[in-house]
Amino acid sequence: MLIAFSVSPLGGESDSVAEAVAAAVRVVRESGLPNETNAMFTLVEGEWDEVMAVVKAATEAVQAAAPRVSLVLKADIRPGFTGQMAAKVERVEAHLREL
Asked: Which of 6, 7, 13, 68 has the most CB within a 10 Å radius?
């Protein structure tokens, strides 16, 4: 399973979300699961239960800093496939090289 998720605080005293988001990303990185963070989402790859446990823990890390939290999650559920975080991108890049 490959997921893309974004969790951020709502409300509070500042418009900056970087510190709370960093707490969530720290949880993801410490999970040991393959992951990647960009400007909008964090990708995590693994089995259903382990990925969802990471999302829950990351959300709880943000909740510790904010009275309200926003969570957006998108999942690619494809049993029997691993390494898709890189493989999906490589398939697109292969087609781009053909052009």
From this structure: 7
